[in-house]
């Protein structure tokens, strides 16, 4: 009986470690800057810092606007943080910033201030207005059902960066 329990315990531990994305550099200490959007990602603290990292590391920036008490933001956060493809791609190829407040840069709210809103900025500090969601009245909004579109847009931001440089 002890042997069976030991085997079951080992299988549970192995399956739980395989299921979650772990960065190449190993498990990282969770940051409070993630606010639950991806504890293993390295998040920039401010928009200015994110722009600097983007330019100096030649990586695109993903800016995520949300509110802690917004049900749409909370629903997207759950799907976003549990999606291994998103977490892996952002960890390896992007600078990431999540904000619970608006910035003074009007380029980050081209069609208004709403949440959740995700924009991409290339290393030349150009906001990628051409990479947007499926809604005409909230062009940079994503909902839980739009996760495949978001993955596609993440890939587009990454590929276009390489094609443009």
TrEMBL record:
Keywords: Endoplasmic reticulum, Secreted, Signal. It is found in: Endoplasmic reticulum; Secreted. The keyword Amino-acid biosynthesis does not apply. Transmembrane segments: none annotated. It comes from the Eukaryota. It holds the Pfam family Thioredoxin_7. Residues 1-19 form the signal peptide. Belongs to the AGR family. This is Anterior gradient protein 2. It comes from Ameca splendens.
């Amino acid at each position: 009986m002890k042997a069976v329990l030991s085997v079951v315990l080992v299988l549970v531990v192995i399956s739980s470690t395989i299921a979650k994305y772990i960065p190449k550099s190993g498990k990282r200490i969770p940051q409070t800057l993630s606010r639950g959007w991806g504890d293993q990602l390295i998040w920039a603290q401010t928009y200015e810092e994110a722009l600097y990292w983007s330019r100096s590391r030649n990586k695109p920036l993903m800016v995520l606007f949300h509110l802690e008490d917004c049900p749409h933001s909370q629903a997207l956060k759950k799907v976003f943080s549990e999606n291994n493809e998103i977490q892996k791609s952002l960890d390896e190829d992007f600078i990431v910033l999540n904000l619970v407040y608006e910035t003074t840069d009007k380029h980050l709210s081209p069609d208004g201030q709403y949440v959740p809103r995700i924009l991409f900025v290339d290393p030349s500090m150009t906001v990628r207005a051409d990479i947007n969601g499926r809604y005409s009245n909230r062009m940079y909004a994503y909902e839980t059902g739009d996760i495949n579109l978001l993955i596609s847009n993440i890939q587009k931001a990454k590929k276009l960066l390489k094609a443009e440089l």
